[in-house]
Amino acid sequence: MASFKVDVLKENKALERENEGLLKQLEELIAKRDRKVQEHNNCIAELNQREQDVVSAQKTLDDATNRYEQNNKRLEEEIALFKQVVDIYRSQIASASDKLKSRSQDYVDDNKFDNQDYTSRSASQYNNLSGNVKDTVVNEARSTFSF
């Protein structure tokens, strides 16, 4: 019986050492789990921040796209207006050239200049054009210096 008691005590000590080792492993696993949970929470917080950054960047992109499109439209309108100015200028040059040739020919024919009207465009066309230029400049100033 004494040997049985010794065997039981040995087995008890072996089980206690194994239990201590398992408890130590359990503590390490709990600590590891806690670190992983904290890392997970940090990742979730970082993900939320990144999602907010994406939303903010998308809004900034949308705003910039709208400004670009508005600016592009304004510039296209200005180009059309400047083309109108160039067309008027070209017609004035052509008209002036024709009138100068006609006047020169008239002088060659009878050695005197006849009284001729030299206006090629009506004043209302210039006023309309001037109004368009003025409106464009005023609108540009408003959009540039809006408070």
Task: Write up what this structure looks like.
This protein has one domain. It is rod-shaped, with a radius of gyration of 46 Å. The protein is 89% helix and 0% strand. Helix 1 (2-110) packs antiparallel against helix 2 (123-144). It is built from two helices and no strands. The chain has helices at 2-110, 123-144. It has 147 residues and is an all-alpha fold.
Question: What does this entry show, briefly?
Answer:
This protein has 147 residues and is an all-alpha fold.
Largest sheet, in brief, is: none
Q: Helical stretch count?
A: 2
Distance between the termini: 101 Å
Mean pLDDT: 82
Count the beta strands. 0
Q: How many structural domains can be distinguished in the coordinates?
A: 1
As a percent range, the share of helical residues equals over 70%
Proportion of beta-strand residues: under 5%
Uncertain stretches of 5 or more adjacent residues: 118-123
Summing up helix and strand content along with how strands pair, one would put the structural category as: mainly alpha
**What pattern of helices and strands is seen along the backbone?**
HH
- Determine Rg (CA atoms, Å): 46 Å
Described by the principal axes of the CA atoms, the overall outline is rod-shaped
